[in-house]
Amino acid sequence: FSERFFYALFGFAALFLLSYWAKPIYPYIWLLVIAFVVIVFAEIVALFKTNGLSGDRVLAEKFSNSDENTVSVTLKNNYKFIIDVAVVDELPIQFQKRDFNKNITVQPNSNKSFEYLVKPVDRGEYHFGHLNCYVSTKLNLVKRRFTFNNEQMVKVYPSFIQMRQYDFLAVDNRLALTGLKKVRRIGHT
């Protein structure tokens, strides 16, 4: 259940407390509670009836150290209605980021992709955890969790992006423009 569901429960408790002093509203509060229960039940059936979401996290084969690297996430809505998805990606411990959360809306029977950047600062193996997706309808009373891409690993190498940049300059003989030049030492060929 979502936060909105519990706020509604507290609201009903307050209304029942108020009905102690205003007795004529008591039956109307029960009508509201029954309507609320029917709406929540309908939302549960809509969300849990089918496997409505599929997702995928795409990582590069290797990451470049101290550079921005792209992580791509694609979600496919198999429901016949618009859904709100809260994406919580379990990033590797080396990033020290525990609050990654992305909220997106996905149209019925369509795909939605987004990218985010990560910047590794150490070489080695980085282990990504689960890609958790919490799906709700526009009413946002009930949420369903989907989990994708269990335990992906990517290796981080020294900055090959910057090395490629200097390779192009070396081929073009423009390293002298950046302040780098070859020094020939006698006896070292």
**Overall pLDDT, averaged?**
84
Main sheet summary: 4 strands, antiparallel
Estimate the helix proportion, in percent. Answer: 25-40%
Unreliable spans: none
Q: What is the radius of gyration?
A: 27 Å
List keywords for this structure.
189 residues
Write the layout of secondary structure elements.
Layout: H1 3-19, H2 26-48, E1 53-58, E2 62-64, E3 69-77, E4 83-89, E5 102-106, E6 110-118, E7 124-128, E8 131-136, E9 144-148, E10 152-157, H3 160-171
Parallel strand pairs: 2-10
Antiparallel strand pairs: 1-3, 3-6, 4-5, 4-8, 7-10, 8-9
Description:
This protein is of the alpha+beta class. The protein is built from three helices and ten strands; from the N terminus they run ααββββββββββα. The protein has helices at 3-19, 26-48, 160-171; strands at residues 53-58, 62-64, 69-77, 83-89, 102-106, 110-118, 124-128, 131-136, 144-148, 152-157. The strands form three sheets. It has a four-stranded antiparallel sheet with strand order 5-4-8-9, with no helix packed on it. A three-stranded antiparallel sheet has the order 1-3-6, with no helix packed on it. A three-stranded mixed sheet has the order 2-10-7, with no helix packed on it. β8 and β9 (144-148) form a beta hairpin. α1 runs antiparallel to α2 (26-48). The longest helix has 23 residues, at 26-48. The mean pLDDT is 84.
